[in-house]
Amino acid sequence: MICNQCGERPASVLVKQKRNGQLTERHLCHVCAAENHNLNLAFEQDPLAIHQLLSNWFPVQSPSVNPVQKEVSVCPSCGFTFNNFLKLGKFGCATCYETFESNLEEIFKRLHNGNKEHSGKIPASYGSTLKIKKEIEELRKQLKVSIEEEEFEEAARLRDQVRELTKELEGSANHGD
Amino acid sequence: MAIDRFLEPKASSWMANEGENTDIAMSTRIRLARNLNEFKFPYAFTEDEALKVDKAISSVLLDKGKDLNQEFTHIDIHEVSSLHRELLVEKHLISPHLAAGVHSGSVLLSKNEELSIMINEEDHLRIQSLQSGFHLQEAYQIANQLDSLLEENLQYAFHEKFGYLTSCPTNTGTGMRASVMLHLPALTMSQQITRIIPAISRLGMVVRGIYGEGSEALGNVYQISNQLTLGKSEYEILQDLQNMTEQIIEQERRARQAILSNSPLKLEDRIYRSLGILTYSRLLTTEEAAKCLSDVRLGIDLELIENIDMSILNELMVFMQPAFLQHYSEKPLSPNERDIARAKLFRERLKEEYKINGDKEGEDSV
């Protein structure tokens, strides 16, 4: 068979595509098949089909027999149900995180090697106390690394920063009393 | 039109070839995913909300970009032809997802093409910072500065426990994906890469061929990136990726030396055959071009080839793709016509290169 696209080289790949419910089949040569999904997958590829993983872990069931919560949880803000989330593998809005919170720990633990809580950057506008606490945690980690690598000047600088932030934290706590 | 500058056959600064380890680490990218608190995420929002999100983010960037010494060009994705969208994808300035144009969306590009801010991709906001070579910290600093500027002016969706809230649970937390593109011909030839890939995935990182999911990488170019976004800080994620990448680079160097000392003639033959194909062929498929580019790149790294500048190869890697070929030819091309155009592109660029740098061997043979 000759390639459907270039009409020159022999076809070696059968490409099945479902678009708008219609299945099309095309016989392509290796060259045209490669051109069809070109180099650009490079940067923005889904590392794994997330919705497939999710539905394996949480078999989608009819809402009435949802084992985790007796009633269907529907996000009040965007209308997504937990099953919507599982099928699509995506959240509909920020409120979804709170609506489905009881089920999320399990999902995050599986997706992020057992981790279930954020420990990185915090927006400046988001509570200064929390920000300082997390910053101190972060600096302590960096401090540990610099001691291990015997970068003592850097370690001293980080230690002073931790002290300063701790003072600031205590200051704001006392102020609050 | 404002977009024109970004479509010129000029290399973006991330395609340059400066800095440490550029022989193996070709480019570095940091991507931050963010959403605005008051709007539904792109999988659930209305077209009206999409427009409001676009306007809110764009106006901050166009207004405050000066604070970072950046001037952004705003490109509305729906006002751009599909070929032009493809060109931006091939240059890595936008993602295929944004190019599909499902919602009203935009991209804001910095003059030097190192920063690209996509609006209404899978998340409201995707900040992308590109650097040539192996520069995780620098790329992160640039993305982080922009992120901090935006958060002063916009309310991000953020949760005390879950961190930055994203559409996909694989991005929740830092919302950061850091990646380095690596050219690993020796690890591929010696098949060591097939052992490295599964080992790395156990450490919360992932290595993929630049092309497809399998182990067969087009042009021996691989991408290593973090898979975890929750539970580790940006600093730790970057540190882990930095260490792992350095180890892979070291392994690649060792494998290159091993091949060079075990079968120097075979290697040299392979490299010069590939240079011959790129310089003289009349029909060049994507795979063959990518394979030969990889060989020639290796030849330059090992100082077997001296009269070709590496940055030319980085440019050709981008400009040999279908949309760019059609843009130059100023007409749509069938796959076969593309192979012709691709061969012509390589012949012309490499001949210019010989003229500039002097083709000693060419002179000898005259």
How many domains of chain B? The number is 2
The quaternary structure here is heterodimer
Which sequence of strands runs across the widest sheet of chain A?
Answer: 1-2
Mean pLDDT figure of chain A: 77
Query: Could you tell me how far the N terminus lies from the C terminus of chain B, measured between alpha carbons in angstroms?
Result: 47 Å
Give a short overview.
Chain A: InterPro entries: UVR_dom, UVR_dom_sf, YacH. Chain A is mainly alpha-helical and 177 residues long. Helix content of chain A is 48%, strand content 8%.
Give an overview in words.
The complex is a heterodimer of chains A (177) and B (366). Chain A is mainly α. Chain A has three domains: 1-40, no CATH class; 45-120, no CATH class; 124-174. Chain A is built from seven helices and two strands, in the order ββααααααα. Chain A has a two-stranded antiparallel ribbon. In chain A, a hairpin with a 2-residue loop joins strand 1 and strand 2. The longest helix of chain A has 25 residues, at 152-176. By secondary structure, chain B is α+β, with helices and mostly antiparallel strands. Chain B folds into two domains: 2-256, Creatine Kinase, Chain A, domain 2, CATH 3.30.590; 264-354. In chain B, 47% of the residues lie in helices and 15% in strands. Chain B is built from 13 helices and ten strands. In chain B, strands 2-3-4-5-1-8-10-9 form an eight-stranded antiparallel sheet. Chain B has a two-stranded antiparallel ribbon with strand order 6-7. In chain B, a hairpin with a 5-residue loop joins strand 4 and strand 5 (125-132). In chain B, helix 2 crosses helix 11 (322-329). The longest helix of chain B has 29 residues, at 234-262. Classes of the chains: A mainly alpha (177), B alpha+beta (366). At the A-B interface, helix 1, helix 4, helix 5 and helix 6 of A face helix 4, strand 6, strand 7, strand 8 and strand 10 of B.
